[in-house]
């Protein structure tokens, strides 16, 4: 993936098992927990490219969130803030080689940022 590609979509859910059954039955998504990410079932679409996770619904996470791959979260956040965005979640590690953050665009949309490799 390259800078600007959408890499992942998280869907907030109240019941992980029920949501897994719903989305796999509706769209044919393969949904499974991955070692190291227990409690966060990941989904992949039949095209083998699209994917994301089913994450617990909570305060500040009530709508699906797309994640965009960036070359540098730090640079992208600075550029976003200069253009009127705010930061909802500062850069945090996912693995030893990947990070994520969440910005809020001037219209109030939450956009996830991803840097690295999983």
Automatic annotation (TrEMBL):
<protein>
    <recommendedName>
        <fullName>VOC domain-containing protein</fullName>
    </recommendedName>
</protein>
<dbReference type="InterPro" id="IPR037523">
    <property type="entry name" value="VOC_core"/>
</dbReference>
<feature type="domain" description="VOC">
    <location>
        <begin position="5"/>
        <end position="116"/>
    </location>
</feature>
<dbReference type="Pfam" id="PF00903">
    <property type="entry name" value="Glyoxalase"/>
</dbReference>
<dbReference type="InterPro" id="IPR004360">
    <property type="entry name" value="Glyas_Fos-R_dOase_dom"/>
</dbReference>
<dbReference type="InterPro" id="IPR052164">
    <property type="entry name" value="Anthracycline_SecMetBiosynth"/>
</dbReference>
<dbReference type="InterPro" id="IPR029068">
    <property type="entry name" value="Glyas_Bleomycin-R_OHBP_Dase"/>
</dbReference>
């Amino acid at each position: 993936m390259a800078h600007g590609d959408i890499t992942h979509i998280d869907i907030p859910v109240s019941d992980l098992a029920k949501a897994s059954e719903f989305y796999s039955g509706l769209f044919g998504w393969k949904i499974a927990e991955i070692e190291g990410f227990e409690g966060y079932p990941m989904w992949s679409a039949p095209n083998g490219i699209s994917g994301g996770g089913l994450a617990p619904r909570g305060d500040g996470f009530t709508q699906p969130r797309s994640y965009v791959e960036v070359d540098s979260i730090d640079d992208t956040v600075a550029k976003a803030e200069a253009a009127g965005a705010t930061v909802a979640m500062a850069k945090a590690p996912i693995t030893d080689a990947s990070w994520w953050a969440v910005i809020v665009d001037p219209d109030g949309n939450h956009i996830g940022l991803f840097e690295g490799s999983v």
